[in-house]
């Protein structure tokens, strides 16, 4: 049997040195998927950030080793983001160091997946994602105008185990799809950030690799295109038909659910979904659970993101027509498109 290790952890997304992080939790389950992170409220400034001052640490071509898990994570997330109009994430070596330090920390402390670190524990480099980014040189503060906080850093963490040896690229893709298929984790595909670092650590359980991974993400920038954007979007294919669960558990689910759809605007926007359905090729209509920032009982979603999801798994290798209505800053919008699931469990 596959084993899904440790906890699903939440994105702690904050203004650096003016922390507004929340979220995190425990839980897990069977199913061979990744344990992964979801979004938390962004309570920093509403100002639109300028470009990060960490550009000297950005690299134009990914430096991750060919066929590595890190490159698979980076490519999988970027491929899914870009096809839906979200900006490509650029590798930042300072964020790489922060993410790698946290992945190593989890491995050194029993493999427990966690957002935070405890001072005095082996491998400690900072309590929060933002602290760790600053520790490795990422800008600690930057202001566009008096009182605004414009450098953002956050992240997600995950664990994965299966009792069969996979390629490193397959491990990376499994972790990435675990994040992409979570109600609170889909943020890595849709938040308007532009920089990323990938951390990866492997220990051993029953003779097979047990993975701890972490992402550091940063630098909000305005989105382009016809906002709000969605993920999945028209033509998205091969996404998980089922997520094995997450913590905090989305409302009205019983341990697993189907691929969600996220609707996102700029960091200053307020997105409210009012209706959401999927319809399969046989005409079966699935009424989705809707979470807006004001109605999310777990208080994880920021105002600029709304998510809808089926409370039970979808069908593998199946096309679904999506119908969404809502408002962006009080102005009505609708979205209609088709995506296709793969034979993947997130």
Your description of this structure?
The protein contains five helices and 16 strands. The chain has 346 residues and is of the alpha+beta class. The strands form four sheets. A five-stranded mixed sheet has the order 2-5-7-6-4, with helices on both faces. The protein has a five-stranded mixed sheet with strand order 9-16-15-11-12, with no helix packed on it. Strands 8-10-14-13 form a four-stranded antiparallel sheet.
How big is the Rg? 18 Å
* % residues in beta strands: 25-35%
Spatial sequence of strands, sheet with the most strands: 2-5-7-6-4
The ordered H/E elements are EEEHEHHEHHEEEEEEEEEEE
> How many DSSP helices?
5
- Output the structural class: alpha+beta
Poorly predicted segments: 1-51, 142-150
Mean residue pLDDT: 83
């Amino acid at each position: 049997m596959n084993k899904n290790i440790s906890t699903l952890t939440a994105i702690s997304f904050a203004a650096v040195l003016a922390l507004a992080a929340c979220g995190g939790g425990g839980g897990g389950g069977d199913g061979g998927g990744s344990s992964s992170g979801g979004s938390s409220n962004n309570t920093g400034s509403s100002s639109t950030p300028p470009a990060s001052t960490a550009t000297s640490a950005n690299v134009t071509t990914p430096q991750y080793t060919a066929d590595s898990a890190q490159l698979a994570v980076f490519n999988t997330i970027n491929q899914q983001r870009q096809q839906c109009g979200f900006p490509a994430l650029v590798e930042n070596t300072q964020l790489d160091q922060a993410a790698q330090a946290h992945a190593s920390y989890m491995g050194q402390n029993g493999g427990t997946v966690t957002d935070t670190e405890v001072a005095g524990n082996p491998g400690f480099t900072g309590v929060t994602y933002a602290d760790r980014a600053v520790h490795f040189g990422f800008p600690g503060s930057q202001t566009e105008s008096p009182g605004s906080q414009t450098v953002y850093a956050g992240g997600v963490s995950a664990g994965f185990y299966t009792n069969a040896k996979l390629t490193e690229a397959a491990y990376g893709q499994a972790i990435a799809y675990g994040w992409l298929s979570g109600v609170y984790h889909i943020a890595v595909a849709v938040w308007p950030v532009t920089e990323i670092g990938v951390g990866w650590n492997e220990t051993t359980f029953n003779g097979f690799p047990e993975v701890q991974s972490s992402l550091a993400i940063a630098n909000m920038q305005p989105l382009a295109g016809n906002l709000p954007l969605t993920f999945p979007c028209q033509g998205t294919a091969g996404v998980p038909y089922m997520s094995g669960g997450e913590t905090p558990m989305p409302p009205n689910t019983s341990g697993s659910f189907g691929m969600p759809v996220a609707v996102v605007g700029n960091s200053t926007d307020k997105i409210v979904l009012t209706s959401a359905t999927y319809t399969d090729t046989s005409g079966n209509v699935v009424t989705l659970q809707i979470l807006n920032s004001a109605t999310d009982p777990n208080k994880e979603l920021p105002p600029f993101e709304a998510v809808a999801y089926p409370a039970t798994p979808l069908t593998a290798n199946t096309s679904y027509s999506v119908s969404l209505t809502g408002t962006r800053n009080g102005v009505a919008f609708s979205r209609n498109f088709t995506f296709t699931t793969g034979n993947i469990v997130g």
